[in-house]
Specification:
By secondary structure, this protein is of the alpha/beta class. It has one domain: Rossmann fold, CATH 3.40.50.150. Helices cover 38% and strands 21% of the residues. It is built from eleven helices and seven strands. The protein has a seven-stranded mixed β-sheet with strand order 3-2-1-4-5-7-6, with helices on both faces. Strand 4, helix 5 and strand 5 form a beta-alpha-beta unit. The chain is globular, with a radius of gyration of 17 Å.
Length: 248
């Protein structure tokens, strides 16, 4: 990921509807599928600027792994009590040993990695036998935008593709669903318009520019409302995919 993005994400993550909506959805799913025990340990792989670390702290002692020193600095500002480890995923997973974790999150990380199946296999060495793994990735190649290029994504996924990779890596899937479903139609419209209009400003190219306050509140409400459904059903399409898995 390009270095300027760490500054950009740190600036917008606490306010932007997408990051806040995703956080609410993930916390609701964690509450359903994960039961923390005394002395539980939680790891956020690719923790970035640390937006999720503070929220994850209620589930146990929190660790983060990231390869970028600037990202780690931001993570420590947001969550001073978290233990942040410098290292790449999956190359430096040994930096975490002999620790074993009860809950591991890999949120919008796999799409950055050349061999994503090998990366998933590496997680098995640090996940406890009864532990839970939570993954999110972007969905559908046809939704590829300049945002994917700036973020140095290797791919976008279908639910079947992600499911096969998780299973091949030795996990059993507890739940896998598309999400970011309610904003799906607007996203397709934006993708269509990108073919017509070119956008040159850096922030516009990211596709995450800050919106008007009322617009932002509406989309946060729209997106986060999916949490009321995802605990019981799977969505047939969406901009992203979430998977919850355990060791097979």
């Amino acid at each position: 990921m390009e270095k300027f993005l760490y500054d950009y994400f740190y600036k917008i993550e606490d306010k932007h509807w997408w990051f806040q909506g995703r956080k609410e959805i993930l916390l609701r799913l964690i509450d359903k599928y994960y039961r923390p025990e005394p002395n539980s340990k939680v790891l956020d792989i690719g923790c970035g600027t640390g937006m999720m670390l503070k929220s994850l702290s209620k589930y146990g002692e929190v660790y983060g792994l990231d390869k970028n020193e600037k990202a780690i600095a931001y993570s420590k500002i947001r969550s001073p009590k978290a233990k942040i480890v410098l290292g790449s995923f999956p190359e430096n997973m040994q930096n975490l040993l002999p620790l074993k974790f009860d809950l591991i999150t890999v949120l919008d990380v796999l799409e950055h990695i050349d061999d994503d199946t090998k990366a998933l296999e590496a997680i098995k060495n640090i996940l406890k036998p009864n532990g839970i793994l939570i993954i999110t990735v972007p969905a559908y190649k046809f939704l590829w935008t300049h945002f994917d290029e700036v973020n140095q994504h290797k791919r976008r996924y279908t639910r079947r593709e992600l499911s096969e990779k998780i299973t091949k890596a030795g996990f059993k899937i507890e739940k896998i669903s598309y999400f970011d479903t309610f904003p799906f139609a607007p996203a397709v419209v934006v993708k269509f318009l990108e073919h017509i209009f070119s956008r040159s400003e850096k922030n516009n190219q990211l596709g995450l520019q800050m919106s008007l306050h009322s617009f932002d509140r509406f989309f946060k409400w729209l997106f986060s409302s999916e949490k009321h459904f995802l605990t019981n059903i799977n969505f047939p399409f969406g901009i992203s995919i979430v998977a919850i898995a355990a060791l097979d």
